[in-house]
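Researcher: Let's do a round of design. I'm pasting the structure tokens now; please hold your answer until I've finished.
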């Protein structure tokens, strides 16, 4: 049984727990175990059937993911360069860390985009923390990535089941709030995009 089928069999309360748990752990290497995109798409599909609430699962997923990425940042901040030599760091391997470092070398826009890149999104928060980048700058860029990626994955699953009609109804009801959040995030990004993400590399 694949992950999507397994999540679909879980009671509604359990789906909320899984999505929140994933959000809290993905940025602290949890995404290496449970693929976040598959889980979010499946949750969106369940929302389309009425099994769970789309606004609720969206809110929970965004908040949990922001908190989880902050935990990953704190881990990197605490362990520093030695993070890559821990047991988990060695399991990830040099290639995995190099891919994440390559993202950081490309600036703030790449940090935002890293949320969309598979395993990399589980490594970047800790790597940024270890780099010495301020938490405020990390949070600004990361928040933009989260508020675009999480809704997109949920809505992908939602539309795949329900089509555009109910999505249109949802957009009319909640669209203004979503637009306000996205606009604020974009303004923050444009203000920070000319600044490099990190001042140095983590060995």
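Researcher: That's everything. Go ahead.
Model: Designed sequence:
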């Amino acid at each position: 049984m694949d992950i999507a089928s397994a999540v679909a069999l879980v009671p509604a309360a359990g789906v909320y727990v899984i999505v929140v748990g994933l959000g809290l752990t993905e940025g602290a290497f949890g995404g290496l175990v449970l693929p976040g995109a598959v889980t979010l798409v499946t949750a969106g599909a369940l929302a389309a059937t009425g099994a769970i609430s789309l606004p609720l699962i969206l809110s929970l997923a965004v908040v949990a993911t922001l908190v989880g990425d902050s935990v990953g940042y704190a881990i990197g901040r605490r362990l520093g360069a030695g993070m890559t030599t821990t047991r988990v760091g060695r399991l990830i391997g040099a290639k995995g860390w190099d891919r994440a470092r390559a993202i950081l070398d490309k600036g703030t826009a790449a940090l935002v985009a890293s949320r969309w890149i598979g395993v990399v999104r589980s490594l970047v928060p800790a790597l940024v923390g270890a780099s010495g980048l301020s938490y405020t700058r990390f949070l600004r860029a990361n928040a933009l990535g989260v508020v675009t990626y999480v809704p997109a994955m949920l809505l992908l699953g939602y539309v795949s089941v329900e089509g555009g009609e109910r999505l249109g109804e949802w957009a009319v009801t909640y669209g203004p709030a979503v637009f306000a959040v996205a606009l604020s995030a974009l303004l923050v990004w444009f203000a920070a995009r000319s600044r490099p993400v990190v001042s140095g590399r983590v060995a």
